[in-house]
Amino acid sequence: MKLSNSLKACLLLLFFGLTSCFEIIEEIDLKSDGTGTMTFTLNMSKSKSKLASIMLLDSINGYKVPSRADIQKSLDQMVSELNKAEGLTNIKKTADYDNFIFSVKCDFKSIENINKLTNKVAGEQKHNTGLNAYFFDKNNGSFKRKYTYSSDVKKQYNKLKSENKKVFDDASYTVIYRFDKEVESQNNKQAKVSNSKKAVMQRVSALDIINGTGNFSTQITLQK
Amino acid sequence: MKQLLCLLLCISSYTFAQNTASKIPSDASIVATIKGENLLQLISMEELNNSFLGSEILKELSRGGNTYSSLEDFGFNLNASAHYFMQVNDSINYNAFVIPLKNVSQFEDLITRSNKEEIVNQNGIKTISGDNSPAIVWDNTTLVVVMGDTNYAYFENEDVSERYGIQTENYGWPETAYEVEAIPAPAAAYEEADEDVEVEIEETVIESAEDYNYEDEEIEETVIESTESYDYDEEEVEETVIESTEGEDYNYDYYDNLNSSYTLKRELAKQWSMLKAKQILMQPESNSILNNKSYVKSLDNKAEATLWVNDFGQLYASFLSNSYYNNMLGMDLASMYANNGLTAKLFMEDDKMMLNTTYTMSDEMASSYKKMTSRKLNKKFLNYVNEDRMIGYLSYSVDTKATLEEYPKLMKSIYGSMPYYGEEASLGIDLFSLLLDEEAVAKVLKGDMLFLLSGISQQEVTYTSYEYNDDYEYIEVEKTKTETLPDFLLMASTEDPSMLTKLINYTRNKEMVTFQNGYYTFKTPQSPLAVHFMIKDGIVFLGTSDLEMRKIVSGNFNAKVSSTHKKMMLNNSYSFFISAKQLASQLPIKEMGIDRSGKLEWFLNTSEDAYMKASKIKGNTLETELVVNIPSTEENALKYMFNIIETFAK
After folding, report:
1. Could you tell me the residue ranges of all domains in chain B?
2. Residue span of the signal peptide, if any (chain B) (predicted)?
């Protein structure tokens, strides 16, 4: 099972929707001891009417439309796979088929467990979709995300038909880091520190990710 | 070879006043013709060469050092007619192209450059050495290309498979050697000719692009030992020896045998196709399709292209008789469609492109269809049509009672002859007719309906988004956006709505629908599209527009329909209309973000109305007409088509 299958099944639906748009939210709640919670949410609610219509069909443009059962199966497989991963516990999934919002949440012992998982997912991909690695030095209160852009993403995007590219026009990827201490500084110009100073958020459009202009690399220093 | 085939398809879909129709055999089942002369009156040679399609062909064939500046350089006679035809018999189906040549040297230059093969001249009949599949032969004026496809069922016959040394898939054939004996050409291929045509077989290599060593070709060798003349009165005309390289130690397991059988059948198809191609090229006019009255009647000098299908029954009989499917299912489609033919004519004019078809039925079928299509569209439907907003419509009119009575009769002709369950099927159909109260059903829905795409509207829909607090924790919030939705209205006549009313009451009691303002509404949670319905004045209304439903309830619907559309809806058994102008004016293309390239907007803004209609049955014929109007900015339909291809291809 590939962890990305669920996302692919959902994105396939979006491709059928042509002008659909979607939002991915990645949340990391990190405690000072290095443990935390990570949540991935895919919100396709803005396209729900088109997706609902498309899901009434068996296939469209020669592609099989994933059924509710297919999506459910993929999500279940994803949970099962996460359960096997080292250091990940309390795996939960939610699926709202009325609004087409899906999420997966897990607790981790160390952010390194997430790195292992993302490396595994990246290894399963046919194409390099960019690399993410997280580091947390609990002694110094320093959190770092290292993001490496892959031009393969743009190559794959350019291979898409013009009408399928529209799926990404209004799509976005949001990352939120929450801490139990205040943020002293962060170095990503595209990211913002919350009013409470305990969280950092960065929203990047899908097109910026594809073109390499959206950079998730961030260094955050927490107050001691 | 692929390049050449593509070119031939393009040429035959464009070309072409030598009468190459005389090359088409009198028993062809399907004939399609494209008239180059008529097409070249619509577009000049220069314009054709400069068109996207023309320049792409020239570019493709100019690769490898050859330079072509005009489509005329390929040697085809673009001012004459090119034909495609299909000829079927029990053993093989032929798909053939007959294309006139203007300059044979230019054509031979093209063929030798693209194939790197030698041209073999057999007493004026030329062909290419080597594989030669499909079969390509030509003389100084005509090119013939034949693709043969052997019939599966023919070789399942034990006598036939034994004769050719082919193992059937149903039983073992252990003793057959792969060096097979003489393979006679299919008898059907010779029955058509009345007179002898003699051809001396004398091979002359006239041109070679590169040295070719026949002795080195060990993979598969085909030796055609031919008698000195093609004597059409005698069956044994040509002997062929197929030598397989597999050798005597061949392991006769199931899949290897299948593979060898496939190879043998393919080899037979190649040889028969070549023989057929030569016959076509040499065919005397007395044996041609020009002696077929039905075909001759289908000809039209003004049409740019024509299609003629002799008899669907005969086609079904050839394709399905004794076949696996027929034996399994036993459906006698050939009987049902016996004496059913078709003629289609394409006209490309200055202001429109028109495709007229005439479907001729057997007496039995015509009698049934006359009854089935006897109903006229309910005139009251027109009270709910407003042309000012209407994007398109589809009208359909059948008589439910007659359809329920006649359709089982037609089905009996198909299923009644099934070998295993024919009697049961016949009994089942009779029982169905007995139990069904056709009259009662016809009172519920009489059989006429009108579907209107009455407009496009914007509707607010909700979606879930997020708002973030000071800790960037989010809460789900409901936001709204507008979506573009089609407004449609479907109308159907009813004489006795009591059954429908019961059904509506049931859904209402189960809270599946709501009742408000005099009509019912069905809505699913995810869909912004609510469907409203009601029954009024003997009409069942089903629509998406609130406003329209309210107007229908109050009797204030502002109808507006021209006499042209009235006639089209009322006088035909079905009609279809679409207004590109209305679509362009109502569809918020930019807001919808569906036209990144701007091509759709260009297409809609430069397109005119299009319609299709099918007449009531007159005599035994049903006539349909498809018309696409051409914008005034375009010179004619052909140039418009080229313009569309160019815009969308770039």
Report:
1. 24-155+265-327, 376-396+446-597+611-619
2. 1-17
